[in-house]
Design a protein that fits this description.
26 helices, 2% strand, two-stranded antiparallel sheet, mainly alpha, 3 domains, 70% helix, disordered C terminus, single chain
Length: 729
């Protein structure tokens, strides 16, 4: 059964990682090595979280077996086999003679058998020799990725050089300061340990020192990120249940996204202008032309066509001044800026359309909430598959979007508030051993006393998963200007994906150690003898540095209370808003102006889409009218009706007059008046006009928030078909 559970965890984590990487990354455009490295870093980080509850339940079961075995008294019965009546397990070896080893082994097996009967093995019990091997592989691979490989790959992905060796050298130069700083810190710790005469430094303690340094830095980041997530997640769920607030917030983001989109387009135009200048100065025979061609190959298609068909002077008219010729270093900088600018343009454009769709959906939810028939009618219907349309009917969609979703989000917010309060309380009191104040430790100990290992595993899973969810939520939501930004819809660049993988690998192990301290299963933190998990044995103990084991790891987590209060009162948001970085604050005039701007942008985009739908509907109806009239003319001709030649056919006797040709070219013909057509055609045209007018009126009803004036009547080329398309009548 354990193998099945372990295999199921591996498969589930694999699917989860693949799904998230598909949502944020784009394997079609990213380098396969980058995609593989990011996948491994995310996969191993998530796998540690899923396997840790199995380690906790297995450790508690092994502790139960050990306690039951040590409690078994023994004596010799009439058969000469050691019986349970005289002495404890720890005194057996001193009372048995050398020739009684066989009987000793028989008694030992008997005692273990009785202990196994009293302690029921958990359903996911893993043998002792399996987990240490798995933890070593996961931990050291994650550390190799987060400290060595991923930082180099991150700089490599941002480099603008044109060769692999050049990018690699640039990456090493950029990471020299990074590695030098950590080597300096490690050297100071090493000197501190060497200066202590009571500490004997050997290989095992050196490894523990390396792990301690890594986990200390990870714990520092963990508390900062966890303090934000514990408050922001419940607040985000509660605010998501308020449709009006969500609509205002979406309009605020829409206004900012419009500005970012315009800036990104201007940045791309500036880079393309630099490329055009470089192309003018470098002819096809220049040694740097191959690098410029590589840059041009990454430009938009229309720009490449303009460069391929230039309208400029010949090569002899180009400037031959060597001072204005671009150097290889200048081309490297242009290449780097082009990669960043193109990706930023794609990301901002996608974000703009996503926010528009979200805003229209929120408006639909507010408008449809008062529908008496409880049917959801979207402004812009999205085409769905047959299965989705059969399951999610308009009534079910109304029940979910206008009724159930708000209540479910509020209930989730309350649950998250309770969990957050439990985490903050446990972080501030987990070092108190008697009485046990940590809520998570009380849950685990209560379930383990009754040998309910399944409940232990469930409680551990939800606890560590909530810690990971709050921490990773901050990692995925935080944004460092244009350097780091995780955007869904496949819009995250390679640099941000690698940076996210680095953060996950760096945070997961300290978070698991912190969780083991919360449930009182790390004896070197709570200073009591307790069962030790295989994960703790691999991590080692931080007794090498007493200032960290007795001070930092115990009291620094209490800072999470201060961070939660700062997040609750939005201290960081107020500081950023004061510095000029516009944030969403309801009492700020600038935020109100941005909300109004976003509302105007949504109204303009709505009118544009409605006009496009009206034009398409009108064109489809005219096409149907053309086809019906053409079919009527063919039927009349087949009945022997003689029709006179039209003026158009008399003027153009050589041109094709088949319905297919007219259908293809009728938009290019001149408009005519209604008197040129027979009475039957005029009646059909009037019916078409009335149908088009009703469709326009219906579409205006959907534009319920639009403050624009009504559309002007359609012009003649919209109201009447083009000339000479009814020549067959």
């Amino acid at each position: 059964m354990a193998a099945v559970v372990l295999g199921l965890n591996l498969v589930l984590v694999f699917i989860l990682t693949l799904f998230l990487l598909h949502q944020y990354g784009n394997w079609r455009t990213q380098h396969p090595i980058v995609t593989t490295a990011v996948f491994v870093s995310w996969y191993f980080s998530f796998l540690i979280i899923f396997i840790l509850p199995m380690d906790v339940s297995s450790t508690l079961y092994q502790s139960c077996v050990t306690e039951q075995t040590e409690k078994e008294p023994v004596d010799y019965n009439e058969t000469g086999v050691v019986n349970s009546s005289s002495l404890g397990w720890e005194n057996v070896s001193s009372h048995l003679a050398h020739d009684d080893l066989e009987r000793n082994e028989t008694w030992r097996l008997h005692a273990i058998r009785r202990a196994l009967t009293n302690c029921e093995a958990p359903w996911s019990y893993v043998p002792r020799e399996v987990l240490p091997v798995l933890w070593r592989m996961l931990y050291w691979t994650s550390q190799f990725l987060t400290w060595l490989l991923l930082p180099i790959m991150q700089s490599y992905a941002m480099a603008g050089e044109f060769s692999v060796l050049g990018k690699l050298l640039t990456s090493l130069k950029r990471n020299a300061i990074y590695y030098g700083t950590y080597l300096l810190i490690f050297g100071l710790l090493l000197i501190y340990v060497a200066a202590k005469p009571e500490l004997k430094l050997d290989w095992s303690k050196l490894v523990t020192l390396v792990i301690t340094a890594s986990n200390t830095w990870g714990l520092f980041l963990l508390i900062l990120l966890l303090g934000y997530g514990l408050v922001e997640i419940p607040r985000a769920c509660w605010r998501a249940s308020n449709l009006s607030y969500q609509l205002a917030y979406t309009q605020f983001k829409l206004a900012k996204s419009w500005s970012e989109k315009a800036e990104a387009e201007e940045e791309v135009d500036d880079v393309l202008q630099e490329i055009r200048k470089a192309s003018d100065r470098l002819d096809t025979k220049h040694s740097l032309r191959k690098f410029l061609d590589l840059i041009i190959s990454k430009c938009p298609e229309d720009f490449r066509q303009k460069l391929a068909n230039p309208t400029r002077a010949s090569n002899g008219a180009r400037s031959s001044d060597s001072s204005t010729m671009p150097t290889e270093r200048a081309l490297v900088q242009i290449h780097k800026k082009l990669i960043s600018a193109i990706h930023r343009q794609f990301r901002t454009s996608t974000t703009w359309f996503v926010l528009l769709d979200e805003g229209f959906e929120l408006e639909d939810c507010i408008r449809n909430k008062s529908n008496a028939d409880k049917t959801f009618r979207p402004t812009f219907p999205v085409p769905r598959g047959k299965l989705y349309a059969a399951v999610c009917t308009p009534k079910i969609e109304w029940i979910w979007k206008c009724l159930l979703r708000q209540w479910i989000l509020m209930a989730l917010s309350i649950v998250f508030i309770v969990f957050s309060a439990m985490v903050v309380w446990s972080e501030c009191t987990f070092f108190v051993k008697d009485p046990v104040l940590s809520v998570f430790a009380e849950f685990v100990q209560l379930a383990s006393r009754h040998n309910e290992y399944f409940n232990v595993e469930v409680a551990s899973f939800f606890s560590v998963t909530f810690l990971a969810f709050c921490t990773y939520y901050t990692v995925f939501k935080i944004r460092f200007f244009n350097y780091y930004h995780l955007a869904p819809r496949h819009q995250t660049d390679e640099n941000s994906l690698i940076f996210c993988g680095t953060m996950l690998c760096r945070l997961t192990s300290p978070m698991c150690l912190n969780f083991l301290g919360l449930i009182h299963m790390d004896s070197h933190v709570i200073k009591i003898k307790t069962a030790e998990t295989a994960f703790t044995r691999i991590m080692g103990h931080m007794d090498v540095l007493p200032i960290i084991s007795d001070g930092f790891n115990v009291y620094f987590p209490m800072l999470i209370l201060v961070l939660c209060l700062a997040t609750y009162f939005r201290l960081g948001t107020r500081i950023l808003n004061f510095l000029g970085f516009q944030q969403f604050m309801g009492d700020d005039n600038m935020a109100v102006d941005l909300i109004n701007e976003g509302r105007d942008l949504m109204q303009r985009e709505r009118r544009r889409r409605l006009r496009a739908e009206e034009t398409k509907s009108r064109r489809d109806q005219l096409m149907e009218l053309v086809n019906n009239t053409s079919n009527f003319g063919r039927i009349a001709s087949s009945n022997g009706t003689q029709r006179p030649a039209s003026r158009w056919s008399q003027r153009n006797p050589s041109r094709d007059t088949t319905p297919g040709f007219r259908y293809k070219n009728f938009q290019n013909e001149e408009p005519t008046v209604i008197s040129d057509f027979p009475s039957s055609s005029r009646n059909a045209t009037e019916e078409t006009d009335s149908a088009v007018g009703s469709s326009i009126a219906e579409s205006r009803d959907r534009n319920y928030q639009s403050t624009a004036p009504a559309e002007a009547p359609a012009s003649s080329f919209m109201r009447y078909p083009p000339r000479n398309i009814f020549d067959d009548v």
